[in-house]
Write a structure and sequence with these properties.
Strand order of the largest sheet: 1-2-3-4-5
Protein name: Copper homeostasis protein cutC homolog
CATH superfamily: Copper homeostasis (CutC) domain
Order of helices and strands: HEHEHEHEHEHEEH
CATH class: Alpha Beta
Number of domains: 1
Oligomer: single chain
Main location: cytoplasm
GO cellular component, one term: cytoplasm
Structural class: alpha/beta
Strand content: 5-15%
Distance between the termini: 35 Å
Family: Belongs to the CutC family.
Organism: Phalacrocorax carbo
Radius of gyration: 18 Å
Number of helices: 7
């Protein structure tokens, strides 16, 4: 439903994340069934591309599973998401993604943010030599975007560009929390911030 509404509201390409749960990227057979079903439904309802990632227990790209998911995804372009940042050897992993046919890889440079992983992102972009698009992501804001784009030589980037908005609820039950203790407050909503998006776009256009 969200995909259908988004497609009606925007003109930019919409890539759908295929992620059956939080946590690690080692999936069970049932989870894989769900991922394949999600891919088919996303294609049916107008997705312009897909985003997913899967690893083996020893921290390598799960080539068997990725090959199967890519086959279901055709002919749409596919991005390997930040599961990449949990691999054992990013240099080997990048070559694996290229050989499998991924068009993009999203990465923070295997660090806690793209700024801290900037040197690896740049090395990966140099290694890629245009065979795959290396997309920095993770903690990117209007304050550090210029440094990340210039330092990585990246032509694309990923960020949430979000801000918190207070809930419109007037009655609030302070005794109940819907979810784990680390989840977002019940009466605060994360929304895409139009001003942040415009600022980030302006910075990028000035550099790229």
């Amino acid at each position: 439903g969200l995909l259908q509404v988004v497609k009606q509201c925007v003109r930019v390409p919409v890539f759908v994340m295929i992620r059956p749960r939080g946590g690690d990227f080692l999936y069970s057979d049932r989870e894989v069934e769900g991922m394949k079903a999600d891919i088919r439904l996303a294609k049916l309802h107008g997705a312009d591309g897909l985003v997913f990632g899967a690893l083996t227990e020893d921290g390598r790209i799960d080539t068997e599973l990725c090959t199967a998911l890519l086959a279901v995804s055709r002919p749409l372009p596919v991005t390997f998401h930040r599961a990449f940042d949990m691999v054992h050897d990013p240099v080997v992993a990048l070559e694996t993604l290229i050989s499998l046919g991924f068009e993009r890889v999203l990465t923070s440079g295997c660090d806690s943010s793209a700024l801290e992983g900037l040197s690896l992102i740049k090395r990966l972009a140099e290694q890629a030599k245009g065979r795959i698009v290396v997309v920095p992501g993770g903690g990117i804001t209007e304050r550090n975007l210029q440094r990340i784009l210039e330092g990585s030589t990246a032509s694309e980037f990923h960020c949430s560009a979000r801000s918190a908005r207070d809930s419109g609820m007037k009655f609030r039950n302070p005794n109940v929390a819907m979810g784990a203790s680390f989840s977002a407050p019940e009466y605060s909503i994360k929304v895409a911030d139009v001003a942040k998006v415009r600022t980030l776009n302006a910075i990028a256009k000035n550099i790229l």
